[in-house]
């Protein structure tokens, strides 16, 4: 891939000067995070880590990622309404993965009772890397789609201006003018506001369901403030608060004490550590309610790695999106090789292949949030150990994407300034709203570029590995 900053990246004095400007600009722009030492208050904050330079992204792949987003919205929404598909696809997984099994139990319980929810809101982020072929051409490959708590739609809106300033400081005024404005938070808020409006109660609030530790609160505040500017009231609550204050009335309207809730926007609830017995009860209460959950539990299940793997099987997309061959072609063009480890001959064969050649693959459990996947020698050892046990089915295998690295500086508080070989991951935010069977909104809402040093195989921004970036289209 093109390396547009080759002339400045090794100019130590220029880099030092630009980095100082960049950090102050990020603070001024509100690209902020709470610190690890003081995660519960905003008295002391720091800048969210980011690259000094915007990273080159091939324009054609960037446009391809945007062009397929509405298709992915449709697909996720379709999966969330297909009980048999979710049941069959997750059957082997829920036998061995307790977390997915517990989500699935709630899903079945809610369906048995009958859904009270009639308005549906999806906010997702489809993530990609640029796979570098033998001939040097790059291809867009989906890493995963996040259907719950997809983050950084707020903070990412702050980086383009910072990078524009950095480029000017480095004498690249013309290039600075090409950086695209980007504000996913606005699009996410538009979806939430639409769902709130269709829910149909002026008095009702939007509830952000948040974690105990909220280091990334400023990212969420960007979305919150967009809602306040539309005169929609926002409250922030944890599962614990729902357990203590939440109740349903006879028509299953959700109340927090006496406050009616129209929309529940989850920024929590995607990993097992988020739940104890009380939190599971709180989750069930929310799912049973009429409130618009973003996402509802079916949509969360639609985002599992196991579902992603099943989608790549020939014929599956055709069943889920009948009569939409063009959407299917766009979606399929982004798939990397994905393989089931279910018991049987197919799973045996791919397990043996991966053990023989682990660097070709990534081994993924049904987990979110980064840092869970296995690579290389570790992949080989784990697969060797579980290859003859049912535990194998709690994982999927995926072809490892190999992007072309580029040099950049990762700016992180208290870290030395040094050049790193980096690779990037592009995320596109999608938003949709459905009322009954009618899709009333379906949009791409903006993008997120995250960049990390190549020595880290895994991990996002929250995990402390990747940093915020801005695409520079080439
Ligand atoms: P999570 O749900 O934990 O975010 P991901 O599937 O997004 O799981 O994987 C986490 C990280 O691991 C990604 O951000 C990416 O850096 C890396 N990764 C995941 N899949 C692949 C792959 N197929 N090839 C190369 N790197 C990958
Ligand atoms: Mg991810």
From TrEMBL:
Q: Tell me which EC number(s) this protein carries.
A: 6.3.2.3
Q: Which GO terms describe its molecular function?
A: ATP binding; glutathione binding; glutathione synthase activity; metal ion binding
Q: How is the cofactor bound?
A: Binds 1 Mg(2+) ion per subunit.
Q: What class of enzyme is it?
A: ligase
Pfam name, any one? GSH_synth_ATP
InterPro entries recorded: Glutathione_synthase (IPR005615), Glutathione_synthase_a-hlx (IPR014042), Glutathione_synthase_C_euk (IPR014709), Glutathione_synthase_N_euk (IPR014049), GSH-S_sub-bd_sf (IPR037013), GSH_synth_subst-bd (IPR004887), PreATP-grasp_dom_sf (IPR016185)
Provide the reaction this enzyme catalyses. gamma-L-glutamyl-L-cysteine + glycine + ATP = glutathione + ADP + phosphate + H(+); gamma-L-glutamyl-(2S)-2-aminobutanoate + glycine + ATP = ophthalmate + ADP + phosphate + H(+)
Gene3D superfamilies attached to this UniProt entry: 3.30.1490.50, 3.30.1490.80, ATP-grasp fold, B domain, Glutathione synthase, substrate-binding domain superfamily, eukaryotic, Glutathione Synthetase, Chain A, domain 3
Complexes and interactors: Homodimer.
Concerning its family, UniProt says:
Belongs to the eukaryotic GSH synthase family.
- Name assigned to this protein: Glutathione synthetase
């Amino acid at each position: 891939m093109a390396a547009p900053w080759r002339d400045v990246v090794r100019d130590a004095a220029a880099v030092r000067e630009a980095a100082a400007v960049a950090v102050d600009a990020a603070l001024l722009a509100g690209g902020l995070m709470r610190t690890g030492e003081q995660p519960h208050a905003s008295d002391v904050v720091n800048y969210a880590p980011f690259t000094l330079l915007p990273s080159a992204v091939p324009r054609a792949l960037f446009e391809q990622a945007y062009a397929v987003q509405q298709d992915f919205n449709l697909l996720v929404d379709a999966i969330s309404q297909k009980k048999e598909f979710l049941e069959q696809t997750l059957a082997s997984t829920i036998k061995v993965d307790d977390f997915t099994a517990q989500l699935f139990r709630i899903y079945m319980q809610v369906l048995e009772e009958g859904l009270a929810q009639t308005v549906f809101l999806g906010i997702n982020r489809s993530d990609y890397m640029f796979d570098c072929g033998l001939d040097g051409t790059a291809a867009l490959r989906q890493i995963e789609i996040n259907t719950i708590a997809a983050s950084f739609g707020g903070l990412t809106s702050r980086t383009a201006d910072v990078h524009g300033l950095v480029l000017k400081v480095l004498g690249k005024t013309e290039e600075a003018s090409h950086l695209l404005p980007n504000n996913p938070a606005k699009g996410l808020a538009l979806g939430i506001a639409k769902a709130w409006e269709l829910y149909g109660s002026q008095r009702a609030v939007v509830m952000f369901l948040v974690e105990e530790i909220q280091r990334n609160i400023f990212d969420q505040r960007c979305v919150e403030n967009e809602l306040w500017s539309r005169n929609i009231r926002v409250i922030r609550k944890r599962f614990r608060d729902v357990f203590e204050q939440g109740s349903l009335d006879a028509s299953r309207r959700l109340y927090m004490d006496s406050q009616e809730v129209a929309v529940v926007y989850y920024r929590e609830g995607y990993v097992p550590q988020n739940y104890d017995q009380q939190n599971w009860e709180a989750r069930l209460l929310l799912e049973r309610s009429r409130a618009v959950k973003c996402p509802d539990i079916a949509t969360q299940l639609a985002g599992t790695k196991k579902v992603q793997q099943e989608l790549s099987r020939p014929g599956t997309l055709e069943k889920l999106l009948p009569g939409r061959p063009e959407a299917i072609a766009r979606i399929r063009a982004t798939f990397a090789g994905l393989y089931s480890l279910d018991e049987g001959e197919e799973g045996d064969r791919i397990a043996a292949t991966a053990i023989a050649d682990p660097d070709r693959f990534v081994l993924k459990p049904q987990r979110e949030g980064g840092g869970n996947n296995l690579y290389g020698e570790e992949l080989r050892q784990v697969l060797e150990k579980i290859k003859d046990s049912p535990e194998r089915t709690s994982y999927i295998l995926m072809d490892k994407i190999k992007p072309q690295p580029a040099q950049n500086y990762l700016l992180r508080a208290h870290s030395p300034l040094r050049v790193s070989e980096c690779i990037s991951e592009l995320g596109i935010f999608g938003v949709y709203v459905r009322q009954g069977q009618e899709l009333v909104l379906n949009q791409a809402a903006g993008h997120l570029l995250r960049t990390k040093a190549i020595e880290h195989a895994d991990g996002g921004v929250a995990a402390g590995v990747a940093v915020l970036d801005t695409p520079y289209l080439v």
